[in-house]
Design brief:
There is one protein chain. It is built from 5 helices and 6 strands, in the order ββαβαββαβαα. The protein is α+β, with helices and mostly antiparallel strands and 149 residues long. It has one domain: Trna Endonuclease, Chain: A, domain 1, CATH 3.40.1350. The strands form 2 sheets. A 4-stranded mixed β-sheet has the order 3-4-5-6, sandwiched between helices. The chain starts with a strand and ends with a helix.
Length: 149
């Protein structure tokens, strides 16, 4: 079930809803043999579970999505590297200090890191570096997203 918070006259999208749409988009456009992963950092957990996660390598502020793409699919002149995407809802979503710190560190290590608030922003970012498939499907998904705003 997708939840949205009601305001006086509009429905505010949750980050979860955006995340699910981005995953549908990635499934449609990423080149074959691409991989992505979501580390479930959101939500409230019992303090003992948080301690267990930290002992196992949990990093507060880790990006929502990690993408690993075939080097041959990067556009000419774009060095192949891991791609990290932090998703934020359009209204009220902001990058925490930990998220910014992790993003800065990832970029210093040669990775790509971006904060996106829509499927369009994800598309625009990826299209500058990778050969995407199904452009017509991507365009339809972006149009549907924007008509629902």
């Amino acid at each position: 079930m997708v939840r949205s918070r009601q305001t006086t006259s509009t429905c505010v999208e949750t980050e979860e809803t955006l995340h699910k749409r981005v995953i549908q988009y990635l499934d449609s456009v990423l080149p074959p043999k691409s991989l992505y992963h979501h580390s479930p950092n959101e939500g409230n957990r019992h303090v003992n579970y948080k301690l267990k996660l930290k002992a196992m390598g949990f990093q507060s502020g880790w990006p929502d999505l990690e993408l690993f793409l075939p080097p041959s699919e990067f556009l000419p002149g774009v060095p192949p590297a891991a791609v990290f995407i932090e998703l934020k809802r359009k209204r009220g979503g902001r990058v925490s200090d930990n998220q910014q710190r992790i993003g800065d560190n990832l970029q210093a290590l040669g990775c790509y890191w971006v904060v996106c608030k829509s499927v369009r922003q994800v598309h625009e970012f990826l299209a500058t570096m990778v050969s995407l498939k199904n452009e017509a499907v991507a365009a339809a998904m972006i149009e549907a997203e924007e008509s629902g705003d």
